[in-house]
């Protein structure tokens, strides 16, 4: 089997695919071991389950093939070696499954016949069933993709609504700030006017006091002369 998972030698996503693929491989090995002990309809059902598991393993292997291109070249050699090990393991499992599928006596039990025409019909039926299952899996993937797209669209609408609400809040806050600035400006002008009036009143008061003092001195001076 492949080397142990080394999270220091690859991206987290690649490592996640790697761990998931190991679980799928273990499940596939278990199914292959069970097929050897079955015959007839149970064997055919087990083979179909193993084929679906093998398809899942190949899909994960494809995702890993894409993801490893994003890994820095300095550590890519280690990842490539692990990837080749996985490819070799899956190829071996694929060959084993083919060998088990080609064992017609075990596959069809007492209904097995050496008649080429009968074998051809059974093979065509098996291929038809396999094609139908693949079509069902593809349809399920399309439904899942549609569901994800709808969920994404809903999230996008909610996000746009939140952004619109935030925009309105910011505009309202800005208007309040402008209005507050107007109040501050008017208050400053009022305070400046009051300060000017106070300064003027002070000057007038000082002038009046000065005149009164001068008048007092003039009266005193006139009395003594």
Order of SSEs: HHHHH
Radius of gyration: 45 Å
Beta strands, count? 0
The SS-based structural class is: mainly alpha
What's the pLDDT, averaged over the residues? 82
Oligomer: single chain
Descriptive notes:
- With 225 residues, the protein is mostly helical.
- The protein has five helices and no strands.
- It is rod-shaped and about 155 Å long.
Give a topology summary.
Layout (H helix, E strand, L loop, with lengths): L11 H24 L4 H28 L5 H30 L1 H5 L7 H109 L1
Q: What characteristics describe this protein?
A:
disordered N terminus; 5 helices; mainly alpha; about 220 residues
Gist of the model:
By secondary structure, the chain is mainly α.
């Amino acid at each position: 089997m492949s080397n142990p998972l080394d999270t220091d030698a690859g991206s987290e996503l690649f490592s996640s695919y790697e761990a998931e693929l190991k679980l799928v491989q273990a499940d596939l090995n278990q199914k292959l071991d069970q097929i050897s002990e079955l015959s007839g309809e149970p064997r055919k059902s087990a083979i179909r389950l193993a084929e679906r598991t093998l398809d899942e393993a190949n899909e994960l292997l494809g995702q890993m093939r894409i993801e490893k291109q994003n890994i820095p070249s300095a550590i890519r050699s280690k990842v490539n070696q692990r990837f080749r090990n996985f490819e070799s393991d899956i190829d071996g499992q694929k060959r084993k499954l083919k060998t088990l599928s080609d064992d017609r006596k075990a596959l069809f039990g007492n209904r097995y016949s050496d008649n080429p025409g009968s074998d051809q019909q059974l093979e065509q039926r098996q291929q038809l069933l396999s094609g139908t299952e693949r079509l069902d899996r593809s349809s399920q993937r399309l439904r899942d993709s549609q569901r994800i797209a709808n969920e994404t669209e809903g999230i996008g609408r909610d996000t746009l609504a939140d952004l619109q609400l935030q925009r309105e809040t910011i505009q309202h806050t800005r208007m309040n700030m402008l209005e507050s600035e107007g109040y501050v400006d008017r208050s400053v002008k009022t305070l400046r006017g009051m300060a000017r009036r106070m300064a003027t009143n002070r000057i007038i008061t000082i002038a009046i006091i000065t005149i009164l003092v001068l008048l007092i001195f003039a009266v005193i001076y006139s009395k003594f002369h």
